[in-house]
Design brief:
By secondary structure, the protein is mainly alpha-helical. It is built from 3 helices and 2 strands. The chain folds into 2 domains: about 40 residues; about 35 residues. The longest helix has about 45 residues.
């Protein structure tokens, strides 16, 4: 029963937070102010640059793995071809 109460309290809190975020101050909602602040914060810029570096590393890794697998498969195919020709 305690778990159910926790879920209900969390649901009510979330709904209240969403409703309050829609309040307009000076023509823009609090949500839009918060979103812009999060995009421009120093922390988000560091996270974005780290994510971009991680994506680049994964792309390079995938390219190296693909090239390695292709050369290995080509080597197996050439070896099989040489055995069949003999």
């Amino acid at each position: 029963m305690e778990e159910f109460k926790f879920v209900l309290k969390t649901l009510v809190f979330t709904m209240l937070l969403i409703v309050l975020a829609q309040v307009k101050v000076g023509g823009n909602s609090i949500e839009s102010y918060t979103f812009r602040w999060l995009q421009r914060s120093t922390v988000s810029q560091y996270i974005q640059s780290a994510a971009a570096g991680g994506a680049m590393a994964l792309r390079n890794l995938a390219g190296h793995v693909k090239d390695g697998v292709a050369s290995t498969v080509d080597g197996f195919q050439e070896g099989a071809h040489e055995k069949a020709v003999r």
